[in-house]
Design goal:
Keywords: Membrane, Transmembrane, Transmembrane helix. This is Yip1 domain-containing protein. The structure is a single chain. This protein has 84 residues and is mostly helical. The protein has one domain. The chain contains four helices and no strands.
Length: 84
């Protein structure tokens, strides 16, 4: 409210700079500072707690990130279809 921004778009996401809608907007909203930090901590946790190798933990984290992007794109596509 203080900066008169759109409450649907997080200020720390890439979409706050671009302002895209639909599938692209959903994907860009997924890429944000705290999400990147989450995936870094997830990788470290898989290495330390899960006793996985660094490559295995990194691959698992990348798979989760890509799945998140796909679900965001699917959600943006469904949202775009329901607007008509």
């Amino acid at each position: 409210m203080a900066i008169d921004g759109d409450p649907a778009i997080m200020l720390t996401s890439v979409n706050s700079f671009v302002g895209a809608d639909g599938v692209l907007g959903a994907v860009l909203s997924t890429i944000e500072v705290f999400t990147i930090w989450y995936y870094i901590l997830l990788t470290m946790g898989l290495i330390i707690v899960g006793k996985l190798s660094k490559p295995a933990a990194t691959i698992i984290t990348i798979v989760f990130f890509v799945l998140g992007l796909l679900f965001a794109a699917l959600g943006g596509a469904i949202e775009g279809m329901t607007q008509f």
